[in-house]
Amino acid sequence: MGELVRKSILASLLIGLGNFVLLKIGTPIGPFLFALGLLGVCVLGANLFTGKCGFLFEDNIKARDLLIILVVNLMSGYLLGAVFGLSDPDLATTASSKISTWAFSFPFLVKAILCGVVMFVAVYVYRKGSPLGVLIGVPLFIFAGFQHCIANVITMGAALSFDWSIVLAVAGNFVGSIVTWWLLKSNNKKPSDSVVE
Fold first, then answer.
1. Separation CA 86–CA 44 (nearest Å)
2. Does the structure show a pLDDT above 70 at 43?
3. Is residue 191 part of a domain?
4. 193 inside domain
5. Tens of pLDDT, residues 156-170
């Protein structure tokens, strides 16, 4: 349990660093630097919900463990974001502006599902031995405006606010990842058994 929690906090920290840079400098450079966060998660074997949920059945992950990863990612991510926002008022202002564009709506859910697809593909390609899935996938979902639940909760923390769209982000990320896994499985192409993040 202790290792599960520690690696989940580590994942939040890595994604948090990427999100900090994105909020701080924006596009076009920010999305590419953000990719270091997910790459770090993969290389260091950290527990990131959006990187794990698509492999729930393939890796025989216990539902309880996935839930713990999600809760720890959300809680530690929010707290980390709060530290960022309190230490940098401009960052907090940018975060608040970004949250104002979110809505508890069907389009938001679709963007979260598509982010789940991208996240699964990024990690799957990394498991196949190439970092390109991460290095291309992360900028792709950011430029496209897709919704990543852990990045979003960090942004909420930075703004010291809460938005119910986080529920759609979590659900959408899970659905997008697991459906992509199922489609891949149905084509008799099993994801690699190699162990990462």
1. 28
2. yes
3. no
4. no
5. 999 999 999 999 999
The token duo for 28 is 């076009």
Asked whether residue 197 is domain-assigned, the answer is no
Q: Which residues contact 137 (CB under 8 A, 6 or more apart)?
A: 35, 38, 118, 119, 121, 122, 125
Place of tokens 């190699």: 194
DSSP class of 104: S
pTM for this model (two decimals): 0.92
Q: Are 134 and 121 in contact (CB under 8 A)?
A: no
| Surface-to-core class of residue 123, CB atoms within 10 Å of its CB (0-12 exposed, 13-18 middle, 19+ buried) | buried
Could you tell me which of 192, 39, 45 has the C-alpha nearest to residue 124?
192
Residue 64: Cβ-neighbour burial (10 angstroms; 0-12, 13-18, 19+): exposed
